[in-house]
What does this fold into?
Amino acid sequence: MTTRTGRHFLQIPGPANVPDRVLRAMAAPTIDHRGPEFAALTLRLLDAVKPVFGTAGPVVIYPASGTGGWEAALVNTLSPGDRVLCFETGHFATLWRNMATSLGLDVDFVPGDWRHGADPRIVREKLAADTARLVKAVCVVHNETSTGVTSRVADIRQAIDAAGHPALLFVDAVSSLGALDYRHDEWGVDVTVAGSQKGLMLPPGLGFNAVSARALEASRTARLPKSFWAWKPILQANARGYFPYTPATNLLYGLDEALRMLAEEGLPAVFARHARHGEATRAAVRAWGLEVVCADEREHSGTVTAVLMPDGHDADKVRDIILERFDMSLGTGLGRLAGRVFRIGHLGYFNDLMLAGTLAGVQMGLQLAREPISPSGVDAALDVLRSA
Ligand SMILES: Cc1ncc(COP(=O)(O)O)c(C=O)c1O
It folds into this structure.
Protein backbone atom coordinates (compact mmCIF):
# COMPACT_ATOMS: atom_id res chain seq x y z
CA MET A 1 0.00 0.00 0.00
CA THR A 2 1.54 3.34 -0.97
CA THR A 3 -1.20 5.88 -0.27
CA ARG A 4 -3.40 5.56 2.78
CA THR A 5 -6.79 7.22 2.83
CA GLY A 6 -9.55 7.15 5.43
CA ARG A 7 -9.01 6.06 8.98
CA HIS A 8 -6.61 3.36 10.06
CA PHE A 9 -8.51 0.48 11.68
CA LEU A 10 -6.87 0.01 15.08
CA GLN A 11 -8.38 -3.34 15.99
CA ILE A 12 -5.78 -4.53 18.45
CA PRO A 13 -7.23 -5.13 21.92
CA GLY A 14 -5.81 -1.88 23.18
CA PRO A 15 -4.65 0.75 22.81
CA ALA A 16 -8.06 1.16 21.21
CA ASN A 17 -9.67 3.94 19.18
CA VAL A 18 -9.66 7.28 20.99
CA PRO A 19 -12.89 9.25 20.36
CA ASP A 20 -12.55 12.66 18.74
CA ARG A 21 -14.24 14.19 21.78
CA VAL A 22 -11.48 12.83 23.99
CA LEU A 23 -8.74 13.95 21.61
CA ARG A 24 -10.20 17.45 21.56
CA ALA A 25 -10.48 17.53 25.35
CA MET A 26 -6.79 16.60 25.65
CA ALA A 27 -5.79 19.35 23.23
CA ALA A 28 -6.63 22.04 25.82
CA PRO A 29 -3.73 24.03 27.30
CA THR A 30 -1.97 22.38 30.23
CA ILE A 31 -2.75 24.15 33.50
CA ASP A 32 -0.98 24.60 36.83
CA HIS A 33 -1.33 21.27 38.64
CA ARG A 34 -1.04 23.11 41.94
CA GLY A 35 -3.79 25.61 41.13
CA PRO A 36 -7.48 25.67 42.06
CA GLU A 37 -8.76 24.79 38.58
CA PHE A 38 -6.75 21.57 38.64
CA ALA A 39 -7.93 20.69 42.14
CA ALA A 40 -11.55 20.99 41.03
CA LEU A 41 -10.84 18.68 38.08
CA THR A 42 -9.14 16.05 40.28
CA LEU A 43 -11.90 16.04 42.86
CA ARG A 44 -14.53 15.65 40.13
CA LEU A 45 -12.58 12.86 38.44
CA LEU A 46 -11.85 10.86 41.56
CA ASP A 47 -15.59 10.78 42.17
CA ALA A 48 -16.70 10.19 38.58
CA VAL A 49 -14.33 7.26 38.07
CA LYS A 50 -15.79 5.23 40.96
CA PRO A 51 -18.94 3.90 39.23
CA VAL A 52 -16.83 2.46 36.40
CA PHE A 53 -15.00 0.32 38.97
CA GLY A 54 -18.24 -0.36 40.83
CA THR A 55 -16.80 1.04 44.03
CA ALA A 56 -17.56 3.65 46.64
CA GLY A 57 -13.94 3.51 47.85
CA PRO A 58 -10.80 5.33 46.72
CA VAL A 59 -9.29 4.99 43.26
CA VAL A 60 -5.61 5.87 42.87
CA ILE A 61 -4.61 7.25 39.46
CA TYR A 62 -0.94 6.98 38.41
CA PRO A 63 0.86 8.47 35.43
CA ALA A 64 1.75 4.90 34.42
CA SER A 65 0.69 1.99 32.28
CA GLY A 66 -1.22 -1.05 33.54
CA THR A 67 2.05 -2.70 34.54
CA GLY A 68 2.60 0.08 37.07
CA GLY A 69 -0.85 -0.68 38.46
CA TRP A 70 0.19 -4.33 38.96
CA GLU A 71 3.27 -3.27 40.90
CA ALA A 72 1.34 -0.78 42.99
CA ALA A 73 -1.18 -3.46 44.02
CA LEU A 74 1.59 -5.79 45.20
CA VAL A 75 4.01 -3.39 46.89
CA ASN A 76 1.34 -1.54 48.83
CA THR A 77 -0.16 -4.62 50.43
CA LEU A 78 2.47 -7.35 50.78
CA SER A 79 5.77 -8.06 52.53
CA PRO A 80 8.90 -9.88 51.33
CA GLY A 81 8.34 -13.65 51.13
CA ASP A 82 4.53 -13.44 51.29
CA ARG A 83 2.84 -16.20 49.33
CA VAL A 84 0.48 -15.26 46.49
CA LEU A 85 -1.72 -17.57 44.45
CA CYS A 86 -1.67 -16.85 40.69
CA PHE A 87 -3.22 -18.63 37.70
CA GLU A 88 -1.59 -19.24 34.36
CA THR A 89 -4.50 -18.03 32.25
CA GLY A 90 -2.30 -16.48 29.56
CA HIS A 91 0.48 -14.05 28.74
CA PHE A 92 -0.52 -11.23 31.08
CA ALA A 93 -1.13 -13.51 34.04
CA THR A 94 2.37 -14.88 33.41
CA LEU A 95 3.90 -11.40 33.32
CA TRP A 96 2.17 -10.47 36.57
CA ARG A 97 3.50 -13.69 38.14
CA ASN A 98 7.01 -12.83 36.91
CA MET A 99 6.72 -9.40 38.50
CA ALA A 100 5.57 -10.88 41.81
CA THR A 101 8.54 -13.25 41.78
CA SER A 102 11.00 -10.47 41.01
CA LEU A 103 9.59 -8.40 43.88
CA GLY A 104 10.50 -11.22 46.28
CA LEU A 105 7.09 -12.81 46.71
CA ASP A 106 6.60 -16.57 46.92
CA VAL A 107 4.29 -17.36 44.00
CA ASP A 108 2.15 -20.47 43.72
CA PHE A 109 1.44 -20.44 39.97
CA VAL A 110 -1.37 -22.81 39.02
CA PRO A 111 -0.65 -24.11 35.50
CA GLY A 112 -3.26 -23.55 32.79
CA ASP A 113 -3.92 -24.30 29.13
CA TRP A 114 -4.49 -20.64 28.08
CA ARG A 115 -8.06 -21.55 27.06
CA HIS A 116 -9.78 -21.30 30.44
CA GLY A 117 -10.06 -18.70 33.20
CA ALA A 118 -8.87 -19.16 36.76
CA ASP A 119 -10.79 -22.10 38.21
CA PRO A 120 -12.80 -21.20 41.35
CA ARG A 121 -12.68 -24.86 42.47
CA ILE A 122 -8.88 -24.78 42.54
CA VAL A 123 -8.98 -21.49 44.46
CA ARG A 124 -11.15 -23.16 47.07
CA GLU A 125 -9.02 -26.32 47.23
CA LYS A 126 -5.74 -24.41 47.50
CA LEU A 127 -7.00 -22.06 50.18
CA ALA A 128 -8.75 -24.78 52.18
CA ALA A 129 -5.45 -26.70 52.21
CA ASP A 130 -3.58 -23.59 53.39
CA THR A 131 -4.33 -24.14 57.07
CA ALA A 132 -1.33 -22.02 58.11
CA ARG A 133 -2.87 -19.09 56.18
CA LEU A 134 0.36 -18.44 54.31
CA VAL A 135 -1.38 -17.21 51.16
CA LYS A 136 -1.80 -13.47 51.49
CA ALA A 137 -3.35 -12.70 48.11
CA VAL A 138 -5.02 -14.29 45.10
CA CYS A 139 -4.19 -12.60 41.77
CA VAL A 140 -6.56 -13.01 38.85
CA VAL A 141 -6.63 -11.44 35.39
CA HIS A 142 -10.30 -10.68 34.72
CA ASN A 143 -9.95 -10.47 30.94
CA GLU A 144 -6.89 -12.24 29.54
CA THR A 145 -6.14 -10.03 26.57
CA SER A 146 -3.84 -12.68 25.07
CA THR A 147 -6.60 -15.31 24.86
CA GLY A 148 -10.00 -13.60 24.98
CA VAL A 149 -10.90 -15.57 28.10
CA THR A 150 -12.49 -13.98 31.18
CA SER A 151 -12.21 -15.30 34.70
CA ARG A 152 -15.34 -15.46 36.84
CA VAL A 153 -14.34 -13.03 39.57
CA ALA A 154 -17.54 -13.28 41.64
CA ASP A 155 -17.15 -17.08 41.77
CA ILE A 156 -13.52 -16.71 42.80
CA ARG A 157 -14.48 -14.43 45.69
CA GLN A 158 -17.12 -16.99 46.72
CA ALA A 159 -14.46 -19.72 46.63
CA ILE A 160 -12.16 -17.68 48.89
CA ASP A 161 -15.03 -17.10 51.33
CA ALA A 162 -16.14 -20.74 51.17
CA ALA A 163 -12.64 -21.75 52.24
CA GLY A 164 -12.94 -19.28 55.13
CA HIS A 165 -9.59 -17.82 54.07
CA PRO A 166 -8.49 -14.22 54.72
CA ALA A 167 -6.47 -13.82 51.48
CA LEU A 168 -6.87 -10.54 49.63
CA LEU A 169 -8.22 -10.65 46.06
CA PHE A 170 -6.36 -8.65 43.40
CA VAL A 171 -7.91 -8.38 39.94
CA ASP A 172 -6.36 -7.13 36.73
CA ALA A 173 -9.19 -5.38 34.88
CA VAL A 174 -6.85 -3.69 32.40
CA SER A 175 -8.76 -4.86 29.33
CA SER A 176 -12.21 -5.16 30.86
CA LEU A 177 -12.79 -1.96 32.83
CA GLY A 178 -15.30 0.34 31.12
CA ALA A 179 -16.28 -2.44 28.70
CA LEU A 180 -17.28 -5.59 30.62
CA ASP A 181 -19.51 -5.79 33.67
CA TYR A 182 -17.24 -5.17 36.63
CA ARG A 183 -18.09 -4.79 40.34
CA HIS A 184 -15.17 -4.08 42.67
CA ASP A 185 -17.25 -3.72 45.83
CA GLU A 186 -19.95 -6.30 45.15
CA TRP A 187 -17.42 -8.97 44.14
CA GLY A 188 -15.26 -8.26 47.17
CA VAL A 189 -12.17 -7.31 45.18
CA ASP A 190 -9.41 -5.74 47.28
CA VAL A 191 -7.33 -4.11 44.56
CA THR A 192 -8.52 -3.63 40.99
CA VAL A 193 -5.76 -2.77 38.52
CA ALA A 194 -6.65 -0.89 35.34
CA GLY A 195 -5.13 1.15 32.54
CA SER A 196 -6.35 4.01 30.39
CA GLN A 197 -5.90 2.66 26.87
CA LYS A 198 -8.68 0.10 26.55
CA GLY A 199 -12.29 0.41 27.71
CA LEU A 200 -11.60 3.90 29.06
CA MET A 201 -10.94 5.06 25.47
CA LEU A 202 -7.82 7.08 26.28
CA PRO A 203 -4.27 6.87 24.98
CA PRO A 204 -1.87 4.81 27.13
CA GLY A 205 -0.45 6.58 30.17
CA LEU A 206 -2.75 6.22 33.18
CA GLY A 207 -2.72 3.28 35.60
CA PHE A 208 -5.33 2.74 38.31
CA ASN A 209 -5.77 0.97 41.62
CA ALA A 210 -9.23 0.76 43.17
CA VAL A 211 -8.57 -0.04 46.82
CA SER A 212 -10.79 -1.78 49.39
CA ALA A 213 -10.81 -1.02 53.11
CA ARG A 214 -9.03 -4.34 53.75
CA ALA A 215 -6.32 -3.49 51.22
CA LEU A 216 -5.83 -0.10 52.88
CA GLU A 217 -5.56 -1.84 56.22
CA ALA A 218 -2.96 -4.24 54.78
CA SER A 219 -1.00 -1.29 53.41
CA ARG A 220 -0.36 -0.05 56.97
CA THR A 221 1.89 -3.01 57.73
CA ALA A 222 3.12 -4.07 54.26
CA ARG A 223 6.92 -4.05 54.05
CA LEU A 224 7.78 -4.38 50.36
CA PRO A 225 9.83 -1.31 49.41
CA LYS A 226 7.83 1.41 47.68
CA SER A 227 8.03 5.12 47.10
CA PHE A 228 6.45 6.34 43.88
CA TRP A 229 3.70 3.71 44.13
CA ALA A 230 2.84 4.32 47.81
CA TRP A 231 -0.90 4.94 48.19
CA LYS A 232 -0.69 6.96 51.40
CA PRO A 233 0.88 10.22 50.14
CA ILE A 234 -1.25 10.07 47.01
CA LEU A 235 -4.50 9.66 48.94
CA GLN A 236 -3.47 12.46 51.28
CA ALA A 237 -2.78 14.85 48.41
CA ASN A 238 -5.88 13.67 46.49
CA ALA A 239 -8.09 14.68 49.40
CA ARG A 240 -7.36 18.30 48.44
CA GLY A 241 -7.41 17.65 44.67
CA TYR A 242 -3.66 17.32 44.15
CA PHE A 243 -0.91 14.73 43.59
CA PRO A 244 2.49 14.38 45.28
CA TYR A 245 4.14 14.58 41.83
CA THR A 246 3.34 16.15 38.45
CA PRO A 247 0.24 14.34 37.17
CA ALA A 248 -0.54 13.58 33.50
CA THR A 249 -2.69 16.70 33.26
CA ASN A 250 -3.90 16.35 29.67
CA LEU A 251 -4.68 12.64 30.04
CA LEU A 252 -6.83 13.64 33.00
CA TYR A 253 -8.74 16.06 30.71
CA GLY A 254 -9.26 13.07 28.44
CA LEU A 255 -10.41 10.91 31.33
CA ASP A 256 -12.92 13.58 32.32
CA GLU A 257 -14.44 13.49 28.83
CA ALA A 258 -14.30 9.68 28.52
CA LEU A 259 -16.13 9.26 31.82
CA ARG A 260 -18.76 11.71 30.59
CA MET A 261 -19.20 9.59 27.45
CA LEU A 262 -19.54 6.37 29.43
CA ALA A 263 -22.11 8.00 31.71
CA GLU A 264 -24.07 9.33 28.70
CA GLU A 265 -24.29 5.87 27.11
CA GLY A 266 -24.91 4.25 30.49
CA LEU A 267 -22.73 1.43 31.79
CA PRO A 268 -25.37 -1.31 31.23
CA ALA A 269 -25.60 -0.26 27.56
CA VAL A 270 -21.79 -0.18 27.29
CA PHE A 271 -21.57 -3.72 28.68
CA ALA A 272 -24.38 -4.98 26.42
CA ARG A 273 -22.72 -3.46 23.34
CA HIS A 274 -19.44 -5.21 24.06
CA ALA A 275 -21.14 -8.55 24.75
CA ARG A 276 -23.03 -8.29 21.47
CA HIS A 277 -19.91 -7.44 19.49
CA GLY A 278 -18.12 -10.39 21.04
CA GLU A 279 -21.01 -12.66 20.05
CA ALA A 280 -21.06 -11.35 16.46
CA THR A 281 -17.30 -11.81 16.17
CA ARG A 282 -17.46 -15.40 17.41
CA ALA A 283 -20.27 -16.09 14.92
CA ALA A 284 -17.97 -14.92 12.12
CA VAL A 285 -15.01 -16.97 13.34
CA ARG A 286 -17.07 -20.14 13.58
CA ALA A 287 -18.71 -19.59 10.19
CA TRP A 288 -15.24 -19.22 8.66
CA GLY A 289 -14.55 -22.68 10.06
CA LEU A 290 -11.96 -21.42 12.55
CA GLU A 291 -11.79 -21.84 16.31
CA VAL A 292 -11.85 -19.25 19.07
CA VAL A 293 -9.25 -19.81 21.80
CA CYS A 294 -11.74 -19.55 24.68
CA ALA A 295 -12.98 -23.06 25.44
CA ASP A 296 -15.71 -22.30 28.00
CA GLU A 297 -19.00 -20.68 26.95
CA ARG A 298 -19.19 -18.87 30.31
CA GLU A 299 -15.81 -17.19 29.79
CA HIS A 300 -15.96 -15.49 26.39
CA SER A 301 -14.62 -11.95 26.30
CA GLY A 302 -16.65 -9.03 25.00
CA THR A 303 -13.53 -6.97 24.24
CA VAL A 304 -11.22 -9.33 22.35
CA THR A 305 -11.56 -12.52 20.35
CA ALA A 306 -8.46 -14.67 19.85
CA VAL A 307 -8.67 -16.76 16.69
CA LEU A 308 -6.74 -20.02 16.52
CA MET A 309 -5.30 -20.93 13.12
CA PRO A 310 -5.10 -24.60 12.16
CA ASP A 311 -1.75 -26.30 12.81
CA GLY A 312 0.93 -25.24 10.35
CA HIS A 313 -0.90 -22.05 9.33
CA ASP A 314 0.76 -18.73 10.07
CA ALA A 315 -1.44 -16.21 11.89
CA ASP A 316 1.12 -13.43 11.47
CA LYS A 317 1.08 -13.81 7.70
CA VAL A 318 -2.67 -13.13 7.75
CA ARG A 319 -2.13 -10.09 9.97
CA ASP A 320 0.60 -8.77 7.69
CA ILE A 321 -1.61 -9.06 4.61
CA ILE A 322 -4.48 -7.29 6.38
CA LEU A 323 -2.23 -4.44 7.50
CA GLU A 324 -0.66 -4.06 4.08
CA ARG A 325 -3.85 -4.31 2.01
CA PHE A 326 -6.50 -2.83 4.27
CA ASP A 327 -4.61 -0.66 6.75
CA MET A 328 -5.97 -2.57 9.73
CA SER A 329 -3.93 -3.63 12.77
CA LEU A 330 -4.92 -6.85 14.54
CA GLY A 331 -3.39 -8.20 17.73
CA THR A 332 -0.52 -10.64 17.39
CA GLY A 333 -0.30 -13.98 19.20
CA LEU A 334 1.56 -13.54 22.49
CA GLY A 335 3.79 -15.92 24.42
CA ARG A 336 3.06 -19.54 23.67
CA LEU A 337 0.34 -18.49 21.17
CA ALA A 338 2.80 -16.54 18.96
CA GLY A 339 2.22 -17.30 15.28
CA ARG A 340 -0.79 -19.50 16.03
CA VAL A 341 -3.31 -16.85 16.95
CA PHE A 342 -4.47 -13.43 15.81
CA ARG A 343 -6.64 -11.28 18.02
CA ILE A 344 -9.54 -9.05 17.01
CA GLY A 345 -10.10 -6.14 19.39
CA HIS A 346 -13.74 -4.96 19.59
CA LEU A 347 -13.66 -2.57 22.50
CA GLY A 348 -14.05 1.02 23.52
CA TYR A 349 -15.23 3.57 21.00
CA PHE A 350 -16.75 1.13 18.54
CA ASN A 351 -19.99 0.41 16.72
CA ASP A 352 -21.74 -2.12 14.50
CA LEU A 353 -20.41 -0.85 11.19
CA MET A 354 -16.86 -0.59 12.53
CA LEU A 355 -17.18 -4.26 13.51
CA ALA A 356 -18.64 -5.15 10.10
CA GLY A 357 -15.70 -3.39 8.42
CA THR A 358 -13.24 -5.10 10.74
CA LEU A 359 -14.64 -8.56 10.01
CA ALA A 360 -14.79 -7.85 6.27
CA GLY A 361 -11.09 -6.98 6.41
CA VAL A 362 -10.30 -10.17 8.32
CA GLN A 363 -12.31 -12.28 5.90
CA MET A 364 -10.60 -10.76 2.85
CA GLY A 365 -7.20 -11.17 4.49
CA LEU A 366 -7.85 -14.85 5.22
CA GLN A 367 -8.90 -15.34 1.60
CA LEU A 368 -5.84 -13.51 0.26
CA ALA A 369 -3.66 -15.71 2.49
CA ARG A 370 -5.37 -18.68 0.76
CA GLU A 371 -6.77 -19.98 4.00
CA PRO A 372 -9.50 -22.53 3.24
CA ILE A 373 -12.30 -20.63 5.00
CA SER A 374 -15.98 -20.43 4.25
CA PRO A 375 -16.93 -16.94 2.97
CA SER A 376 -19.98 -16.86 5.25
CA GLY A 377 -18.27 -15.30 8.32
CA VAL A 378 -19.25 -11.68 7.73
CA ASP A 379 -22.86 -12.67 6.99
CA ALA A 380 -23.02 -14.69 10.21
CA ALA A 381 -21.85 -11.63 12.16
CA LEU A 382 -24.32 -9.35 10.37
CA ASP A 383 -27.11 -11.74 11.34
CA VAL A 384 -26.19 -11.24 14.99
CA LEU A 385 -25.92 -7.47 14.60
CA ARG A 386 -29.24 -7.28 12.75
CA SER A 387 -31.13 -9.36 15.25
CA ALA A 388 -30.27 -7.60 18.48
C1 LIG B 1 -4.81 -7.86 30.86
C2 LIG B 1 -3.62 -6.97 30.81
N1 LIG B 1 -2.93 -6.76 31.92
C3 LIG B 1 -1.85 -5.96 31.96
C4 LIG B 1 -1.40 -5.34 30.83
C5 LIG B 1 -0.19 -4.50 30.91
O1 LIG B 1 -0.58 -3.18 30.73
P1 LIG B 1 0.41 -2.09 30.11
O2 LIG B 1 0.87 -2.64 28.79
O3 LIG B 1 -0.47 -0.89 30.00
O4 LIG B 1 1.52 -1.92 31.07
C6 LIG B 1 -2.09 -5.51 29.64
C7 LIG B 1 -1.64 -4.87 28.40
O5 LIG B 1 -2.15 -5.07 27.33
C8 LIG B 1 -3.22 -6.34 29.63
O6 LIG B 1 -3.92 -6.54 28.51
About this structure: The first strand starts at residue 9 and ends at 11.
